[in-house]
Amino acid sequence: MSVVISLILSLISITIIFLLTFDKSAFDKVSEIQLNWLLIAILLHILSWVVWGLRISVMSGYIDRRYRVNLREGTSIALSNLFLAAITPSMAGGEPVRIRMLSKKGMGTGKSSALVLGERVFDGFFILTLVPVSLYIFSTYIESENIRMCLTVGLILFIAGMTFFVYSVLRPQLFKRMLKKLVKIIRIKEMDKIFCMIDEFMEGFQRGTKEIFKMKNKAGIAIVFLLTAVYWFLEFLIPSCILKGLNQNPIILQSISAQILLVILVTLPLTPGASGIAEGGAALLYSAIIPERATLGLLILAWRFITYYMNIIVGGIFQYKFFKSFFSKEKKQKE
Q1: Greatest C-alpha distance within the chain
Q2: What pLDDT shows up at residue 102?
Q3: If pLDDT is split at 50, 70 and 90, which confidence band does 49 have?
Q4: What is the SS3 string spanning 66-109?
Q5: Running DSSP on this structure, what letter comes out for residue 187?
Q6: What is the pLDDT of residues 146-175, one digit of tens each?
Q7: Which domain holds residue 77?
Q8: For the chain, percent helix, then strand, then coil, each to nearest 5?
Q9: Total domain count for the chain?
Q10: Higher-confidence position of 26 and 245
Q11: Residue 82: which residues within 8 A CB-CB, separation 6 or more?
């Protein structure tokens, strides 16, 4: 159902934007598209998947060298989570898939959760360090109070999420008690078994996060942060490549600033895969720096196809393979 809702919202948004921006000049722009630049944009997105896989591989090695995943496995994990991430609010659906796949490698749920949540922390810190610069560059372009409000809410959610993660690491016992109280309130059966699972999870989670963020691991933190920066800049450069393909000024600095602010907007857990929000936010932000309506519509159409629909297609294929393999193994074990 989430797939249908997210696709419908996205298609409706793109259709509205395209109808509002479509004119006779659009035909000329389509006929003059430089396909090599569009291909480069697609390759940048594919390369970002590989960098994501490399980051998973590196982080798994720091958590527990015995269960370190290689680049191929890390990339497969990254690709397998794309589908659910694309159809859930704030892309939260991808995390359980990555945790499950890492757990299958022998890491355990606690350490796997530490790695996946650690990824979010690195992403969050990287984006937050760039937000002030982006706001400064884009401040003269943002006139809508609604956009300013959405950006403010997004920033608050960003900071709240990272604060919660840091707090759970610094005060694991309190976080553990909170989980156990929640289990009691819900009145889940086999509480003793659940409590043992919570203890095991928190022990692995705390150990994993300490291995990633301990001060002795400064070089490791720097490497993961660098990989995080490379991943995001590969994604941020996609619109500029599309603009080059449309024979337009790539406006790299302004475009990267718009992309950073869009990341803040799409974290708002309002629609599956941020469908509608991503298209609408991109239209509002880029309309301030792209005067031609036809160019704006074609840019958003191509950008959303590369960064969203490609994720659904490729992620769906890899997730199907993952679940097919998982259930076949479960069947064999029962037999």
Answers
A1: 69
A2: 87
A3: very high
A4: HHCCCHHHHHHHHHHCHHHHHCCHHHCCHHHHHHHHHHHCCCCH
A5: T
A6: 666 766 776 677 677 667 766 666 666 666
A7: 2-334
A8: 85, 0, 15
A9: 1
A10: 245
A11: 49, 94, 311, 312, 314, 315, 318, 319
